[in-house]
């Protein structure tokens, strides 16, 4: 008889029941032909004795194997490995460790050079520059979680647990209508609101619906890197237009419109990403008029509407759009925290309906529990109170960071103090390069990050965007300290 | 002087401060040229008196308008509407209500006929058939929310609040490695795991990476409707292969492979969707061998692995795949509830890395708080306990539903009792049509739903899939009662 006793091993610590452990091992033996076709298997009583397990375990195992088709029972003859079972063709494994790795795909697929690596694992010792994120320590996670739990415990919650609308939760859509009409001067109804997983999903959906191969999208000659990549993934053609101190130059967009059919213009009107400039009133109106005249879409990504230190927020283009040209995108990622994947796409009903259908394919639907939580968080005024609280703190951080950047580097950096947002558009003196600064900074445990993403058009402007909002006062001093050491080293090179 | 007093209205209940309300109304007046270019605005003192507000309000408003560029200040002359401000071209509005609706897009975009409407709003009086969803009343929402809150309150949580890995949370990936290796017989490491928002995102990502125009994907001649649509959205070509009582006929796939280059095969091995049959062991091995030989991908959607009433679950293809051919997709949507958007895509590292990059474009990242919550829920054994609990209940419901469907309709329906899952593949006697049943059922407040989606290949099989798991005993009786009334009516037609 085949030496089951030495071939089979049970792990009694394992969650898996004994009969399944046994079945899976016998399957392995059949698959690799250790148990060859037509082999007769021992009776259940015999095998139970040999393996020192209860007979029921063997019976259950054989039943399972029969059901799965790995063995067959021939009346009055016994149980056999079938003759017709095809042998599984496996690659030769050099050692058993390879078994668990599965490195290479056994098929071809489309690799897209646009898809770039995301930043690697972080090291606790290092300080990492970012392009303007909130400070997680100020996030009211506990308050939000309390609301989440209260909502989850409600009896009426059952109806929200199954498959729901691809537009997002009704209550949150209604709350957002009120909130956006009040704070952004929009004139929308619920039919204009799709709840997304943050701004990126809004850009993705818009991009899929607006752009096909060779379609033209206009962006600033510096532009938000993720938006650029999303448009390139669609194989659309990006036309870059000058951005000056009043934002994107709409006269240049007009010139383009006269030459070619433009599908869309992507703008970050409130604080242009990455340069932080605000689009002037005159250009806003010009852009809206161009969109109407030439029938293109304006994707208005209003990623940091809430943060203004010197003035009230300026109303978005969407508040002046009466012709259905604007697709307005926002989220709570900057004002609360990126972990809460709640955003919105606002557009004409016609476009929104199509976006909602597409969204069904992407991830079926949102998270109704989290959406209800944020409906409560916004409606109760907690969101506004949170924004007021952090805005004061971020303003102090901006002032400190800009003062140090101005006073401690003897003209190495040039910048304008940003009127809002969470980042400073910082120019390095053209005697130096960010490549060198990045390299040297690492010796002082400062990671500059991918500075090249701020210059996709290869303008050589020597700027990067430095976020200040996520660091407290001590950390700002520490950051400046490491940067000073870096610059001092470079000057001595 | 322009009649500001009668043109401007303040809403003192509104959250918006008075100066901004004023500014926005003046912007409207300038935009529609009620205040024409070169108009001189009254001094702040005069206007404050006329509007009966504090002078500071007017000063703040004018500062805001200056900043936004809507007015200009000429020294010693006063404040003016600029001459150069372009006029916003608006469509004629028939009445003010239209203002808030924005029906039509002012640009063209790609409508795709594949994108179909999702089911409309539900009516509380109605019973709705589904194709096999869990019962939300059995979902441990409160326990999960308690864990969510505990995790959110932890001090270490800060590092999870910002932008994170597009692969998903590390801890959940590690927990899933253990869980899937133990319960599904996989041999994976963390590098093979991408956390998704449920199975649909796994299908979407795979589809984007595998299929371009005219690429061939093979599916069953009946197949899960959403998968079909996702592949069609990619403009790929769907080849349909017979499904019999042993699952998809792999011999027919082999014939196809000899004729054409196949990119992928989509299978629901455990319980084929919609017919509920299990793919036999022989065909499993055959399919794996074909994939290796012809270098195609197998998308294995294991949507209901956990639910088996007569036998232990059968290990997925992915557990036998040593050549990197299988993309294994699953989620907690069936075993817990669809509202928890946690799923996984398991594949060779090479494919997974590309999927993770693409995922960054789709929605940037998952919800780390929810992912940590489910890491805890799975690791603690709570998930398994929950599955054991509901499985007993669903088995009773299956037995009751099948007994009634057999005994109460005098041969109108034909079906096999499903060995697992949450639905019965139900054939209507060919003397009747689901179109008629659907129509008549509505008079008894029973909504059959889109029965045509079960026959995308127009086979005329007259089957639909009826979920039983979401109804309790009383509801099953009520459902059968309404269906009996419907059938009685039809027999009397």
Write structural notes for this entry.
2 copies of one chain form a homodimer. The first copy, chain A, has 493 residues and is α/β, with parallel strands linked by helices. Chain A has 3 domains: 4-80, Winged helix-like DNA-binding domain superfamily/Winged helix DNA-binding domain (Arc Repressor Mutant, subunit A); 127-134 and 386-492, Aspartate Aminotransferase, domain 1 (Alpha-Beta Complex); 156-380, 3-Layer(aba) Sandwich (Aspartate Aminotransferase, domain 2). The first copy, chain A, is 41% helix and 13% strand. Chain A contains 16 helices and 17 strands. In chain A, strands 5-13-12-11-10-6-7 form a 7-stranded mixed β-sheet, with helices on both faces. A 3-stranded antiparallel β-sheet of chain A has the order 1-3-2, with no helix packed on it. In chain A, strands 14-15-17 form a 3-stranded antiparallel β-sheet, with helices on one face. The model of chain A is unreliable at 91-98 (pLDDT under 50). At the A-B interface, helix 2, helix 4, helix 6, helix 8 and helix 9 of A face helix 2, helix 4, helix 6, helix 8 and helix 9 of B.
Element layout with pairings:
The structure is a homodimer of 493-residue chains.
Chain A: H1 4-7, H2 18-31, E1 40-41, H3 44-51, H4 55-68, E2 72-74, E3 78-80, H5 96-99, E4 127-128, H6 141-153, H7 170-184, E5 193-196, H8 199-210, E6 216-220, H9 225-233, E7 237-241, E8 243-244, E9 247-248, H10 250-259, E10 264-267, H11 281-294, E11 297-301, E12 326-331, E13 343-346, H12 349-363, H13 368-379, H14 382-407, E14 413-414, E15 423-428, H15 434-443, E16 446-447, E17 463-467, H16 473-492
Parallel strand pairs in A: 4-16, 6-7, 6-10, 10-11, 11-12
Antiparallel strand pairs in A: 1-3, 2-3, 5-13, 8-9, 12-13, 14-15, 15-17
Helix pairs in contact in A: 2-4, 3-4, 6-13, 7-13, 8-9, 10-11, 14-16, 15-16
């Amino acid at each position: 008889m085949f030496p089951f006793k030495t071939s089979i091993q049970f792990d009694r610590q394992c969650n898996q029941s004994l009969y399944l452990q046994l079945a899976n091992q016998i399957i392995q033996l059949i698959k690799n032909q250790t148990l060859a076709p037509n082999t007769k298997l021992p009776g259940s009583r015999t095998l139970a004795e040999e393996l020192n397990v209860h007979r029921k375990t063997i019976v259950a195992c054989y039943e399972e194997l029969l059901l799965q088709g790995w063995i067959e029972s021939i009346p009055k003859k016994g149980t056999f490995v079938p003759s017709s079972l095809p042998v599984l063709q496996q690659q030769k494994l050099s050692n058993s460790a390879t078994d668990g790795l599965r490195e290479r795909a056994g098929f071809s697929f489309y690799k897209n050079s646009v898809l770039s690596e995301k930043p690697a694992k972080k090291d606790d010792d290092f300080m990492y520059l970012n392009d303007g994120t909130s400070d997680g320590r100020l996030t009211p996670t506990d308050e939000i979680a309390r609301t989440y739990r209260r909502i989850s415990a409600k009896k009426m919650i059952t109806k929200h647990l199954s498959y729901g609308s691809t537009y997002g939760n009704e209550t949150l859509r209604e709350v957002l209508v009120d909130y956006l009409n009040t704070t952004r001067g929009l004139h929308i109804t619920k039919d204009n609101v799709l709840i997304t997983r943050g701004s990126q999903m809004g850009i993705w959906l818009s991009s899929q619906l607006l752009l096909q191969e060779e379609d033209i999208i206009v962006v600033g000659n510096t532009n938000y890197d993720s938006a650029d990549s999303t448009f390139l993934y669609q194989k659309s053609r990006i036309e870059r237009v000058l951005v000056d101190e009043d934002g994107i130059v709409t006269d240049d967009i007009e010139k383009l419109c006269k030459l070619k059919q433009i599908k869309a213009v992507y703008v970050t009107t409130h604080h242009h990403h990455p340069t932080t400039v605000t689009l002037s009133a005159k250009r806003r109106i010009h852009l809206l008029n161009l969109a109407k005249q030439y029938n293109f879409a304006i994707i208005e990504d209003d990623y940091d509407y809430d943060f203004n230190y010197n003035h009230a927020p300026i109303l978005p283009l969407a508040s002046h759009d009466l012709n259905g040209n604007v697709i307005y995108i926002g989220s709570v990622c900057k004002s609360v925290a990126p972990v809460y994947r709640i955003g919105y796409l606002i557009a004409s009903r016609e476009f929104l309906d199509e976006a909602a259908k597409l969204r069904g394919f992407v991830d079926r639907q949102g998270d109704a529990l989290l959406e209800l939580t944020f409906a409560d968080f916004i409606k109760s005024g907690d969101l506004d109170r949170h924004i007021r609280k952090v805005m004061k703190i971020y303003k102090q951080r901006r002032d400190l960071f800009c003062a140090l950047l101005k006073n401690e580097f003897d003209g190495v950096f040039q910048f304008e103090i940003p009127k809002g947002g969470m980042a400073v558009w910082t120019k390095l003196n053209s005697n130096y390069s960010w490549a060198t600064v990045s390299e040297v900074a690492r010796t002082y445990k400062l990671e500059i990050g991918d500075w090249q993403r701020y210059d996709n058009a290869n303008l050589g402007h020597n700027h990067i965007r430095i976020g200040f909002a996520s660091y407290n006062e001590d950390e700002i001093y520490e950051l400046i300290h490491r940067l000073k050491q870096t610059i001092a080293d470079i000057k001595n090179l």
